[in-house]
Amino acid sequence: RPQDLSEALKEATKEVHTQAENAEFMKNFQKGQVTREGFKLVMASLYHIYVALEEEIERNKENPVYTPLYFPEELHRRAALEQDMAFWYGPGWEKAVPCTQATRSYVQRLHEVGRREPELLVAHAYTRYLGDLSGGQVLKKIAQKALDLPSSGEGVAFFTFPNIESATKFKQLYRSRMNALEMTPEVRRRVIEEAKTAFLLNIRMFEELQELLTQNTQDQSPLQASGLRRRPGSSAPGKGSLEAASSGFS
Hints:
One of its GO terms (molecular function) is heme oxygenase (decyclizing) activity. By secondary structure, the chain is mainly alpha-helical. It has helices at about 5-10, 15-20, 25-30, 35-60, 70-75, 80-90, 95, 100-115, 120-145, 165-180, 185-215; strands at about 100, 230. About 40% of the residues are buried.
């Protein structure tokens, strides 16, 4: 009997998953060494990533290569991240939220996959959502304590999944749906490779954020640092603007 897709993905991404968790930014975060500026930057990156991911999921929600994994009420993060952006960046946040070069690359890859190879969306959804469900609560508590945030949850809505009663049971359901997806051996191989790519995109994002924060401590604003620009304002955030834990968010 061939190995289940979920097990194959877990095994194939073990090394890059460890690399993501050991990225300096994530190691510092897990130790509670996170600044407001650092947290704002990582949340801004997640906002852009999820806008792109969920745009492509919506585009492919009736495509049999993805439909069994379509759980918008339970999983989708865009609305929560919009609340967080309003908390961290204030009125007019749509024009104020920065986007790093590594985040733009991630976003671009998500749009490429969603439009040209939607069968690979499963790799990105698996990497992001299952990672967020696994590690989200721990990171939420760390951020609340380190940044002295309200216990009511403002600023960290991203980490809360109100429509999932049991993360463990939901992940079991999600993996069983993944394992039932029909795919050829070649598509399966590409999905596994894409999951590794997803982790690498996250690692690059963490590395770049760490570089920007280091530059900032040397009296340079991150928004002036190389590769970081504000996203042009638009009435439809995310469109044309550029997409475990996240890799490290698991």
